[in-house]
């Protein structure tokens, strides 16, 4: 297949996954609208149908809670093929949604969409919603400065090694019986394990039992960990939101202040042992024991640290394709199991945005070349083995098609 054929296929995947105003990540495995998947879908659509790209973000933000939170799943239509569905979350939201959020990449991608399309009015309509969401992160997810997550699903990097410590403390004794659906769609060896799922469900049950009351979740919830990835994403997203505000002539310095505050709090995530920013358990103060792609997203935020960069360069050089989600030298590394080793085209695309901004041309080109190679060889899968390039997870994946169109198919 030529790159031109791949362009066609990528556009066809976005069209096929379009459910009318929103795009599912892939049929079967993920039959609803997911938050950060949708932001990438919007970016992909913007390369050939800008109006449809903005519509995607509008549909996502139409599900925003009055608190400013933008949920991680919006259950537009019932589908028994996914667990846990709207009935398990029981948030009472309209449209039905989950009770947690997901990485706030929308402002980063909306800024790029605006630069490419010049659709200032579509951006203007989104701006207050983005601002409210970022304020929600500041008010409800930064209890000690950095961005924290209350559920591994909120991080978007569900079973990465970052969460092992916090997950080990989650009590699963009252979870009860349930049936997973994900392993009916994808090889179980590429998905989180049963112990992970018990804990995921236990955390959802806590949220549901307290009526998704954020004070209770932060104070007494079973899981709360500082997340380097979301901290870095939010630093970048706040600075991009400030740039959006300037374009729109809005006079609000909050996003810049929020970005500076996040950056000032970063030392709390610094592990001397690993010489990197890593996840940290709020309750115990313990650090995660491996360097994940969360650290690599420091490049997206423009956070410079020579010691960490040396570690990241070694990790990148130890695989063949892209930035792995876990350090291949770590005991927890598993090259095909979801976020415990595979390389994710979308994460590579975010890191590349940072490399582009920093003028790091050669590294950006290498990352793009390696990501494009995976797609040329394996197709539009969800993630890939970083050692041998085996395609993993769901096929015909929206965000992989989107980043192909918006970034990876760059020709040089
Ligand atoms: C899943 O169900 O695997 C999702 O990652 C949750 O958001």
UniProtKB/TrEMBL annotation:
Mannosylglycerate hydrolase MGH1-like glycoside hydrolase domain boundaries: 30-400
InterPro entries noted in UniProt: 6-hairpin_glycosidase_sf, 6hp_glycosidase-like_sf, Glycoside_hydrolase_63, MGH1-like_GH
Entry GO MF terms: Glc3Man9GlcNAc2 oligosaccharide glucosidase activity
Biological process annotations from GO: oligosaccharide metabolic process; protein N-linked glycosylation
UniProt record similarity statement: Belongs to the glycosyl hydrolase 63 family.
Highest classification ranks of the organism: Bacteria, Pseudomonadati, Pseudomonadota, Alphaproteobacteria, Rhodobacterales
Keyword match ATP-binding: no
Name of the protein: Mannosylglycerate hydrolase MGH1-like glycoside hydrolase domain-containing protein
Domain of life: Bacteria
Keywords: Glycosidase, Hydrolase
């Amino acid at each position: 297949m030529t790159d031109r054929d791949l362009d066609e296929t990528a556009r066809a995947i976005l069209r096929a996954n379009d459910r009318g105003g929103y795009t599912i990540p892939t049929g079967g495995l993920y039959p609803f609208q997911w938050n950060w998947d949708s932001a990438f879908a919007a970016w992909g659509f913007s390369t050939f149908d800008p109006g449809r790209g903005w519509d995607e973000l509008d549909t996502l933000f139409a599900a925003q809670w009055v608190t400013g939170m933008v949920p991680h799943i919006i259950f537009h239509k019932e589908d028994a093929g996914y667990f846990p569905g709207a009935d398990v979350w029981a948030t009472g939201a309209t449209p039905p949604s989950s009770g947690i959020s997901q990485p706030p990449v929308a402002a980063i991608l909306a800024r790029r969409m605006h630069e490419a399309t010049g659709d200032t009015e579509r951006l203007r309509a989104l701006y207050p919603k983005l601002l409210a969401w970022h304020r929600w992160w500041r008010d409800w997810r930064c209890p000690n400065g950095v961005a924290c997550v209350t559920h591994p699903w909120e991080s978007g990097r569900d079973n990465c090694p970052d969460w092992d410590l916090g997950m080990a403390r989650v009590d699963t004794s009252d979870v009860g019986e349930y049936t997973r659906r994900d392993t009916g769609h994808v090889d179980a060896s590429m998905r989180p394990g049963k112990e992970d799922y018990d804990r995921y469900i236990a955390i959802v049950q806590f949220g549901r039992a307290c009526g998704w009351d954020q004070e209770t979740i932060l104070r007494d919830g079973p899981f709360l960990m500082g997340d380097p990835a979301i901290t870095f994403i939010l630093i970048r997203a706040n600075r991009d939101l400030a740039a959006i505000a300037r374009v729109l002539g809005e006079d609000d310095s909050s996003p810049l202040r929020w970005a500076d505050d996040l950056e000032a709090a970063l030392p709390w995530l610094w592990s001397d042992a690993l010489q990197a920013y890593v996840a940290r358990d709020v309750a115990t103060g313990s650090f995660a024991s491996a360097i994940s792609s969360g650290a690599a997203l420091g490049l997206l935020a423009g956070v410079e640290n020579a010691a960490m960069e040396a570690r990241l360069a070694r990790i990148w050089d130890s695989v063949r394709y892209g930035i792995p989600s876990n350090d291949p030298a770590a005991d927890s590394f598993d090259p095909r199991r979801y976020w415990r080793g595979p390389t994710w085209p979308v994460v590579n695309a975010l890191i590349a945005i940072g490399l582009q901004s920093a003028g790091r041309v050669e590294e950006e080109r290498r990352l793009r070349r390696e990501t494009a190679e995976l797609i040329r060889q394996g197709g539009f899968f969800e993630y890939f083995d970083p050692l041998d390039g085996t395609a993993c997870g769901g096929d015909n994946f929206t965000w992989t098609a989107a980043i192909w169109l918006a970034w990876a198919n760059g020709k040089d």
